[in-house]
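user: can you give me the structure for this one chain? tokens are fine.
assistant: on it. calling the predictor now.
[tool input]
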Amino acid sequence: MGGMRKTLLAAILLGLGIAAFQTRCAAQAGAIEFAARVTPAGGVEEPVRGFPLYLLSKSFEDIEKEADADSPKMDMNAFIDKLDSSISPELKAWMRKSQWVSLVGEDFTKRLTPEDILSIPEFRRAYMERNAGDQSADFPQPKVKPADQAKHPEKFDKLSAEYQETVRRYIVQHPQSVEGIDLSLTEIDPGPKWNNLLSKRGPEIHRRALELAQSKYLVARVQTDLQGQGSLQGVAPGRYWISTLDVAAVVGDIRARWDVPVTVSSGKAEYVALSNANSMQPVRSSQ
């Protein structure tokens, strides 16, 4: 009988200890009260009703960066090395040095130096096609003749070098003459193939970010009421983020997303107002 009484007493004391610990934890926990309201173009503030919000222990922006860092990077140099023989070794070397594979657009042409244009066969050919036939311009004409290459090789080399220097100076003096040479490079442009490979990586990173947000970093999930309000109780003290993940709250012509930090203190309720002001670059819907 004595042993039973001792066991019963120990169980009672353990229960009281657990209850006291839970009471202390409840007293130490905090809470988050929030309201999500958006002001569309009409100028009248509207609540975001029935919308899911996530309390995360890490910002969704940083979670996306983590997912990107964990995903294998595309190796541009390996991609360049695998390009077929339609791309000259000189052009491949330029791509590796520039870490650039697109051969169209203003961003491309602005990267070109006169030396690039004259030393890389594809660029030189495109530039000459663009300018040499323009009779209205004062583009320099060559003095060298093809027949001289066999008959007078020294003369041919000397005149060729002089002409190349003349064209180089012309490019420097007329930078606008480079515009449009990309039109002759579209057939060999590996940019679309590279962009296609990158586009396949993006969705995988995004999927992984959502997975991390809703598992490893998820603290709680709540849905707003008809007034756009909600609350989270029993939140341990610490720093959190109220996030919509990748889903936009559509109110009128506004699409708002949030990733707002909030610090919870022991025994206190923190209020967070979600609005246009702290939205992640709210954009107006085209519809």
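assistant: here you go. The longest strand covers residues 30-38. Confidence is low (pLDDT under 50) at residues 18-26, 283-287.
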